[in-house]
Design a protein that fits this description.
With about 300 residues, this protein is an alpha/beta fold. The chain folds into three domains: about 5-65, OB fold (Dihydrolipoamide Acetyltransferase, E2P); about 70-215, Rossmann fold (3-Layer(aba) Sandwich), CATH 3.40.50.300; about 230-290, Orthogonal Bundle (Ribonucleotide Reductase Protein R1, domain 1), CATH 1.10.40. The chain has helices spanning about 35, 95-105, 125-130, 150-155, 170-180, 260-265, 275-290, and strands at about 5-15, 15-20, 25-30, 45-50, 60-65, 70, 75, 80-85, 110-115, 140, 160-165, 190, 195, 205-210, 210-215. The strands form four sheets. The chain has a six-stranded mixed β-sheet with strand order 10-9-8-11-15-14, with helices on both faces. Strands 1-2-3-5-4 form a five-stranded mixed barrel.
């Protein structure tokens, strides 16, 4: 159609989609019924073809262009980097961090670990370097207060749509504001329960100069295990790869088998014991879900 334009969905609320075109104009759209038949729902971050509305009438999402990646919680598409933020307070949830790393790798999204509030305490930065050095992914020590590491963070943010993820209260919104100049709502940490209060209710794609950043709800309920056969969980651990094929049994779960090369690497200090212990926790969770898949 002559009036069709290309845009990107920046927000979706109540069945309406807000799309931004290259000239910065925002269009309010509805999705055509064909998407329901295709069991396809537009997502924030989707590149689309749209027909603008006229007068008080809303426009239409005509086509959803092929996605490079997609997440289901929150529902966002075409994310280039997931910036996984931890901080000294609240205490890092490394099991959640491992889960998010697995999700990113399985979806083809490039992860980076960002340790915020390094002006308060650098012990978490040291822990992260030790735990995840073998993954060969970007790791940044930053402070929204002092500006440490913000230039390195901005370099990542310029490479495509980026998404901040992690526990509530680690300073994701404050860090984004410090890096891009965007003014976002921020939440304070509840001193009584040592957890952050959720302040972002809907995923929204924010633009500022060269930056395209998704402001998203917390990822703490994310569970990417549906349909995952337990033996394949180890494939999502790049630090296990050098030991594949060296175990007595094949395949090996790296759980308690004799002559397991991964467990031997832990004993020799080549792999972090806590990292492997968390893998065992996730493996048992995946095994339980797999057993119940037909219930």
């Amino acid at each position: 159609m002559e009036n069709t334009r290309q845009g990107v969905i920046v927000k979706g609320v109540g069945g309406l989609y807000y799309a931004r075109c290259a000239d910065g104009e925002i269009h309010i759209l509805r999705a055509k019924g064909k998407f329901r038949k295709q069991k396809l729902t537009p997502m924030v971050g989707d590149r689309i073809l749209l027909t603008p509305g006229t007068g008080d009438e809303h426009g239409w999402v005509e086509e959803i262009l092929p996605r490079e990646s997609e997440l289901l919680r929150p529902p966002v598409a075409n994310v280039r980097h997931v910036l996984l933020v931890v901080a000294p307070q609240p205490a890092p949830d490394y099991l959640l961090l491992d889960t998010l790393l697995i999700l990113a790798c399985r979806q083809g999204i490039r992860p980076a670990i960002v340790v915020n509030k390094c002006d308060l305490d650098r012990s978490v930065w040291e822990e992260v370097q030790q735990e995840y050095a073998a993954l060969e992914i970007p790791m940044l020590a930053v402070s929204a207060q002092t500006g440490e590491g913000l230039e390195e963070l901005r370099h990542l943010l310029r490479q495509g749509i980026c998404c901040f993820a992690g526990q509530s209260g680690v300073g994701k919104s404050t860090l984004l504001s410090a890096a891009t100049g965007l003014e976002l709502k921020t939440g304070e940490i509840s001193r009584k329960i040592s957890r952050g209060r959720h302040t972002t209710r809907h995923a929204e794609l924010l633009f500022s100069g060269d930056y395209q950043v998704l402001d998203t709800p917390g990822f703490s309920l994310l569970e990417p295990w549906e349909g995952l056969e337990p033996i394949h969980l180890k494939d999502d651990y790049p630090d296990f790869a050098p030991y594949e094929g060296e175990c007595r049994f094949s395949p090996c779960y790296h759980l308690s088998e004799p002559d397991c090369a991964v467990l031997e690497a832990v004993r020799q200090g080549k792999l972090g014991a806590q990292r492997v212990e968390r893998y065992h926790v996730l493996l048992k969770r995946v095994q339980e879900i797999w057993r119940k898949r037909y219930d």
